[in-house]
Amino acid sequence: MKQFQHFINGTYCESTSGKTFDNVAPATGSVIGQVHEAGREEVDAAVTAARAALSSEWGELGVDQRCELLYRVADGINNRFNEFLEAECADTGKPYSLASQIDIPRGAANFKIFADTIRNSVNKSFQTATPDGQGAINYAIHVPKGVIAVVCPWNLPLLLMTWKVGPALACGNSVVVKPSEETPATATLLGEVMNEAGIPKGVYNVVHGFGPQSAGAFLTEHSGVDAITFTGETRTGEAIMRAAADGVRDVSFELGGKNPGIVFADCDLAKAIEGSLRSVFANCGQVCLGTERMYVQRPIFDEFVSRLKDGAEALRLGRPEDPATNLGPLVSETHRQKVLSYFRLAVDEGATVVCGGGVPDMEDDLSAGSWVQPTIWTGLGDDARVVREEIFGPCCHVRAFDDEDEVVALANDTEYGLAAAVWTENVSRAHRVAARLEAGVTWVNSWFLRDLRTPFGGMKQSGIGREGGEYSLEFYTETKNICVKL
Q1: Catalytic residue selected from 181, 254, 390, 467
Q2: Catalytic site residue 254?
Q3: Which of 158, 286, 424, 484 would be 186's cystine partner, CB 3.0–4.6 Å?
Q4: Which residue out of 67, 89, 171, 288 is catalytically annotated?
Q5: Is residue 449 part of a domain?
Q6: Can you tell me whether residue 378 is helix, strand or coil?
């Protein structure tokens, strides 16, 4: 039985309380490990170690030296690629084919990308006139913010954790990571890589546990934490924001979404179907940027629904290691019960079930896993809960629309504003509609296409702040002005 211990000050350690909880494989429902739950003592030790690291060897390193170490971390992940792949897929149940293309390579690449970003960042300077005619020079410098609490989600555990840890370390901070209780493995394994790469003790720390009255709350409430970055549910973000108010600490949030996909009649339908199938069903619908609301212009509505149904029914559910598998289970039985409750609610609200809507028959030990069918609905009103609330499963509702103004209003009629996708071959319409959508990221004729130099984040209740490229530096550093009188 695997033991997932805390990683504090460069060493693995158990909880002093002895409290543990099960790590369950979502593909089979079997217990595959024991996770040690952190109390206040472990969290305090992690924060103390992180703060001490700032004033020791780590704080004395130059940018080039830090970046060289981060390159070694990335190489270390790639050198142990299969270990990370197996750990990630055991925790999440996602297919190897998906994690080997996205989760692990992109998770490793984040360290090199942000090392290069900080290496090439430019500080602004200004020449200032003064009454004596001699003038002054003002220039800005960026200094580390301090100890960063990194609270991570379970849907892309390694990728979204390193998306935060990479820039935090590149900027010279230290971190305390609290991975999701559902997916402890890769954050824990990364501790070994950090040691192998020569990252000083205390720079990278991991504490395991839950949210309220556990590691999550103890970490975000800790006065030794200077800033908090979080990806997850909006309600959890609200709780963290309340904790961060004590001490006026900075926060960066990527929160919930109910993302629209808009398909105009002039689209390339084959591309729109292929992209929409990915945006709805990739990672079993457990992608913050995924599409749960499809709006299709009336002349192509019936054909679109028919072809989307064919694509959904062709998805292959199975063991993560099977190369033919392209749809895994949901992350846990608890989450499956939530998604199934929305499946039932859709019927209660009057939906037409185009396909799915239940639990698939799975063979052998897979029958105890957290599986659901890929599901498509039509026929619901715009005020239906299934249309308005985030489900986070492999499902979507498809609604017809007639004109541009109508669909923009429908797409924006939500408390969220994370992402959107627009499918059209009319370039003027593409620019016009994308600019009107209330979303932090809008894709045109694509989905999940990311240039990591660009700003990423949500509007409204989908988040606070922006990450990516130099935008990450704005959160992970304090900008100071220095004024020199000549």
Answers
A1: 254
A2: yes
A3: 158
A4: 288
A5: no
A6: strand
